[in-house]
Specification:
Elements: E1 2-6, H1 16-30, E2 34-41, E3 49-52, E4 55-61, E5 64-66, E6 69-71, H2 74-82, E7 88-93, H3 98-107, E8 112-116, H4 127-147, E9 151-153, H5 156-159, E10 171-173, H6 190-196, E11 203-208, H7 217-230, E12 234-239, H8 254-263, E13 270-274, H9 278-287, E14 290-293, H10 304-311, E15 316-319, H11 326-331, E16 334-337, H12 342-355, H13 363-369, H14 372-387
Parallel strand pairs: 1-2, 1-7, 2-4, 7-8, 8-9, 9-10, 11-12, 11-14, 12-13, 14-15, 15-16
Antiparallel strand pairs: 3-4, 5-6
Helix pairs in contact: 1-14, 2-3, 3-4, 6-9, 7-12
């Protein structure tokens, strides 16, 4: 198959969505497909076109930005030219122009499949302006959903509670791709301990992700005093990008979180690491006693970092929200906490720490549930049904 993926961002920008698209695109290539990713040129220094790990990447200049949205009209015109060269068009949303992209694909004689990753919320805008922008966006994405052959989602539970719930009957759940070979527990975590001052007896309660509103990290910090009261050696390690996020520093919660930790008197019991490279991420997961994903917003639809932590032998505490709850619910490797509830988070963390040795969840079970190959196969099945209904296996 020749597959054209259209997404608002692609690597080197790092987010759950870009990592998902990267793993999916490269997985398609390994399966013998020809793949092009059409996306925004979110940094001026990036080449307009390049081949990355077998994936053709075409980037179009950003005309203007609105919060995390990068508006690149060239994507729409490029789609009109590229669509005829590909068998399949796969549009990933949130994408403000999703409806227009779907229309252009149809006018170019191509059906398409919409991958609906998560709802969109406008944060920090005046309420009336934010609501107006959201209304326009949902007119666009619902148009894309209406005309899409199928809608691929991360979980049925998420779309059934989302702003696109009316389209749930035409949706197919495909679990996001996790690199099960990359994320393995490592024995040597000395570099991580030395760099961030982690003592031998410290009990590491970790978070990894972009420091943005939807992650809910402030509620983990609010839970920290209660955790430390029960587990005096607990140290909260907040890892992840706090500056290079879509929307820039206006979107980042880093400064607010650091000030919040100071006001809570956490002192050296909380560490902000900033961005971690691949090796340091493995050391981080391997040194954590419990990983926490305290998400609070529908912008969070799954949380692949949870599975990465599990693959490295670390149980998880996650918010009990549609999509976000799935890794813990499917594996039993951790506990769920009420969103925006520091007491519930603290109780879940302490509970997991106390019974960590008794979980007995084998890594092979987790790897079998989540893998790039499994995701690619799921997409291939949707594409075959939508685009090649007469194809026999």
């Amino acid at each position: 198959m020749k597959i054209l993926i259209v997404a608002p961002y692609y690597i080197p920008y790092i987010s759950g969505m870009t990592i998902l698209v990267q793993r999916l695109a490269e997985g398609f290539v390994r399966s013998g497909h020809s793949v092009c990713v059409l996306t925004s040129r979110h940094e001026n220094g990036l080449p307009p076109e390049e081949l990355m790990n077998g994936v053709r990447v075409v980037r179009k200049r950003v005309l203007f930005r609105m919060q995390r949205g990068a508006f690149a009209p060239g994507i729409t015109s490029a789609l009109a030219g590229l669509a005829k060269d590909y068998d399949i068009v796969n549009i990933h949303a949130p994408f403000f122009e999703a409806g227009l992209l779907g229309l252009v694909a149809r006018l170019s004689g191509r059906k398409y499949v919409l991958s609906y990753i998560c709802d969109l919320r406008m944060q920090g805008s005046p309420i009336s302006l934010g609501k107006a922008i959201e209304s326009l966006y949902y007119l666009s994405v619902k148009s894309a959903a209406r005309h899409s052959e199928k809608i691929i989602v991360l979980s049925k539970g998420y779309i059934e509670s989302s702003r696109l719930k009316e389209y749930a009957p035409k949706s197919v759940a495909v679990i996001p791709p996790i690199d099960t070979e990359k994320f393995v527990r490592v024995a040597d975590v000395s570099s991580f301990k030395k760099r961030y001052g982690i003592g031998v007896d410290d009990v590491v309660v970790g978070f990894l992700g972009r420091l943005t509103h939807e992650k809910g990290v402030e509620y983990l910090l609010q839970a920290a005093p209660r955790i430390i009261e029960k587990v005096p050696k607990a140290k909260i390690v907040v890892a992840g990008e706090g500056e290079n996020v879509a929307g820039g520093l206006k979107e980042s919660m880093k400064a607010k979180l650091q000030e919040h930790a100071k006001q809570l008197g956490l002192g050296d019991r909380v560490v902000f690491t900033g961005f971690l490279d691949d090796r340091m991420v493995l050391e981080f997961y391997s040194r954590c006693q419990v990983f926490v994903l305290p998400s609070i917003d529908p912008l969070e639809a799954f949380g692949m970092v949870q599975v990465e932590a599990m693959l490295c032998g670390c149980p998880v505490v996650a918010s009990d929200m549609p999509g976000i709850r799935d890794p813990v619910s499917l594996t039993g490797y951790g506990a769920l906490a009420r969103p925006k509830d520091p007491g519930s988070i603290a109780e879940a963390v302490v509970g997991v720490l106390r019974k960590k040795a008794s979980f007995g969840v084998e890594r092979e079970k987790i790897a079998a549930l989540f893998s790039v190959d499994k995701t690619v196969k799921g997409y291939e099945e949707v594409f075959d049904a939508a685009f090649f209904p007469g194809k026999t296996k």
